[in-house]
Amino acid sequence: MTEKVLILDFGSQYTQLIARRIRELNVYSEIVPYNKVPALDDTIKAVILSGSPFSVREERALHPDLAPLIGQRPVLGICYGAQYVAQHFGGTVARSDSREYGKAHLDKIYRSEGLLAGMAPGSQVWMSHGDTIKEIPDQFELLASTADVEVAAYGSKPGAFGAPVYCIQFHPEVYHSLEGKQLLHNFVIDIAGCSGSWTPAHFVEETVASLREQVGEDRVLLGLSGGVDSSVAAMLLHQAIGDRLFCFFIDNGLLRHNEFNEVLVSYAGMGLNVTGIDARQEFYSALAGLTDPEAKRKAIGKTFIDVFDREARQLTNIKYLAQGTIYPDVIESVSVHGPSVTIKSHHNVGGLPAKMGLKIVEPLRFLFKDEVRRVGTELGMPDRLIKRHPFPGPGLAIRILGDITPEKVALLQKADAIYIDKLREAGLYDQVWQAGTILLPVQSVGVMGDERTYEQAVALRAVTSTDGMTAEWSHLPYDFLASVSSSIINNVKGINRVVYDISTKPPATIEWE
Ligand SMILES: Nc1ncnc2c1ncn2[C@@H]1O[C@H](COP(=O)(O)OP(=O)(O)OP(=O)(O)O)[C@@H](O)[C@H]1O
Ligand SMILES: O=c1[nH]c(=O)c2[nH+]cn([C@@H]3O[C@H](COP(=O)(O)O)[C@@H](O)[C@H]3O)c2[nH]1
Ligand SMILES: NC(=O)CC[C@H](N)C(=O)O
Ligand SMILES: [Mg+2]
User: Fold this and answer.
1) CA nearest ligand 2 atom 13, residue
2) What is the full DSSP assignment across 417-454?
3) What ipTM goes with this model?
4) What is the CATH number of domain 4-191?
5) CA 20 to 30 Å from 223, out of 23, 238, 253, 356?
6) CATH fold of 200-386, please?
């Protein structure tokens, strides 16, 4: 079994970042809500207490019992975690005179061994707190101070508990803590004794073995979207159970230009058993006349389930439905804050298992997107597939504002293909996180060859992001935009105007619907 570091989540906006940083050290880490700590087994090598929007001084603050953890495994408290440990053992935490947010330096380091090994005085760290630790408990000693915060780091005195407890006021997980990675390495590798052997190859080996065990001799069905997640999930299952994996790729008539054929060919090249299903008319009928974004999404979700269900009934003995669920989806649904409000209802084929009595298998449920991509590379999948921009399940339907017709889809496909091809040619495709073209329900006047035109407008969108939760518009070169614009207007009859979307998320979203 894989060794791991457990992260108790107290609701910090950085909790996921802690997990990612530790995984960068090739050590698997898992986030659990602060009040759902599993019993410690041999795989758990260390425990981290995250930061929190709460103050330990509030009555409604989160106060789990630390007794089962302290001394049993090395513990690292970060910010709220550090304040909570101080309070728990009888130290004092008070409101600080000024909220401290941003850069600071560890001017004094009292022990350059253990947690702070290899870090010289002056090391830049990043702070984000309103409370401060005034007195540390008796069993502990001071490890480092900044100009403003005396207790920047403290730890248990040697031998005070079985395993050591370290606490830091700053955030080692953010990039602005320049030696944060060194500190986490000290904690996870040197202090907790993790081996750092969790690599993509290791993940593949372990996951394939556990899929074999989970699925046994049964058959599995999987919906392929052409996206990274479902494709990597398919490859893992294929390695595990070979021909007992059955894949569907549905042409919903809302894919990009030529996408259905291109993707089918690349799947065949990877040895997958894929059935392509032409359901274009069914989707167009379901969408006919609908203009409301949520109504369109619901109609698409329902049609997906209907098509999937009907096709699946042609197969016998299917026991499992595989899904490309990834870690952020899982964290969201178990988070301390509870599921967040629905801005847009993301579709998936999740309604199926109940309808068909299928069990779920989710080989990627503990990976972040970039980790999924690395696993894909490890599996030998083509770069073109792995580096594809995310593309929403409802496809072009949410990039055509207003009602959907096959003619509008064809128009948008042409403009979009020009944009994406040009991004690739210019070497910009991989620098952008996601790009796409939006067909606007707007007609405007133009002049072409001395003739008046009255045609549609498209918007180009390109964003940089790490997870799609927040995004900035990409600063694509003007010359590049100019060439895309003239190419679209000259080559796509029906479009006489191109605009560029310069909105960030929030307050805008990446898609327009
Ligand atoms: N055209 C399609 N044909 C068959 N299944 C699909 C199709 N589109 C989506 N699905 C299924 O629905 C799931 C959700 O699709 P969606 O595109 O919303 O997911 P995603 O999180 O972007 O993942 P991916 O990287 O696989 O696209 C996919 O993982 C896939 O199993
Ligand atoms: O699988 C999906 N099903 C959906 O219904 C859906 N809606 C938006 N997206 C994608 O999610 C990311 C964030 O998009 P928004 O900023 O528009 O919410 C972007 O990457 C969007 O493309 C979807 N993906
Ligand atoms: N980032 C944090 O964990 C902050 C902890 C606590 N809410 C404070 O303001 O001090
Ligand atoms: Mg997708």
Assistant:
1) 468
2) HHHHHHHHHTT-GGGSSEEEEEEEEEEEEEEETTEEEE
3) 0.89
4) 3.40.50.880
5) 23
6) Rossmann fold (3.40.50)
